Amino acid sequence: MFKTVLRTLLLSCAMFCCAQAAAATDATEVMRKVQDRYTGDTQIATSVLTLIDNKGRKRTRDLKMFRLENDTVEKSVIFFLSPADVKGTAYMSFDWSDPAKEDDAWLYLPALQQVKRVAASDESGSFMGSDFSYTDINGIEFEDFTYTLLRESESVQGQDCWVIESLPKDERIIKKTGYTRSESWVRKDIFMVVQSKIEVQKGKRVKYYSATDIEQIDQIWTAKTLQMVTTRNGQKEHASQIQFGEILYNQQVDESLFDTQAMQRGI
Question: Fewer CB atoms inside 10 Å of the end CB: C or N, the chain?
């Protein structure tokens, strides 16, 4: 999945013409277009994160997210608004354009009243008890993977897709992401990943990602429902769903929000 579950967490996608889609048959070039799609210079979104256990029991969290992007960095911050046990929690990440520069991430837990830096070694872990990992939220570097076209055409949600395999280039990437292999279904008309099968190193689990309720908002293709399901030995263990409410692109976003003190103040 590329660049971020909140970017993919928010997974919007730029529109490309059909002529471009027809010409892009090289897997690496397709995935580069997925990564480089335009998702707005800023984004403000509300969403509900639902956690679903293997007995179908649900817990919800209300979130608000702000994103600001320029030529050098994409900054995002997520504030947890409810329920009471997570209210005030905040997560912030800086995704640097320079692949040689390590991305930054911080988590604020109000019970501890301190901001903790999220180390690269922790990025394969669960994001706030969900099936999305910190890797999914932060995004992964395009250059860290090799890409192979598995199938030229397969239908998902009635749309024609390429099926592309992504493999980490070395053990360091596997350790950081926790993923050993993935297959992605990429819509040919808009270069959006709408479905993925992800093989997880720990416990030999398999995760299934989907992006649905896709529509244009301010001329930007946007998936308003994201789901991740974790399975083990073919059995569902847990699932998480992100349902977006209001999404605003290219509105004024105060850069002072992207600060560890702002995380503690909340919104």
Answer: C
